[in-house]
Amino acid sequence: MRLFGWFFLATLSLVLMVQLRLIDGALTSPDTPWGIVGFELAFTRVRAAEMLGVWRSLGVTDSAFVSLGVDVAFLLVYPFMLRSLVQLLRFDDGSNVQRVGARLASAVLVCIPLDALENALLWRMLVTGASASLALVAGVAATIKFLLVLITAAWCAGALFRRLFPRPAHG
Prior knowledge:
Blueprint: H1 2-24, H2 35-40, H3 45-58, H4 61-75, H5 78-89, H6 96-107, H7 111-128, H8 132-164
Helix pairs in contact: 1-4, 1-5, 4-7, 5-6, 5-8, 6-8, 7-8
């Protein structure tokens, strides 16, 4: 049953991720090669303002609003998908690796409020213009979120590798 739940969340995450990539296509240009992710990681008022200026000149700011809207659904799915994957791959043998997995299963849910905060700040800048404090806080929230996702994904890759290629028992 846990595998079915993970499969459902993984499928929904994939569908939403594809939708986000399609929407983000309009936001990607030579001046904004990372699209909305670049806006998330702008960190400064100047860089955020440059990106907003490019998007306004291209007439694609509506795509940024749509991307942030779809990301609200995504942020409610991918952390639970990662959590359930950790839980599927984890076994309680008391090892440090497994204890890290247990902590990651909880920590990855911190992505939800971080992503929500980041989206709210980006939305505010789309409406009111770039701000140093909003760009900085959004960048910090996005950085922590991305690090949690990467660390959790790396742990899952390692756990899957250990499952597929177990060490031979010494006897």
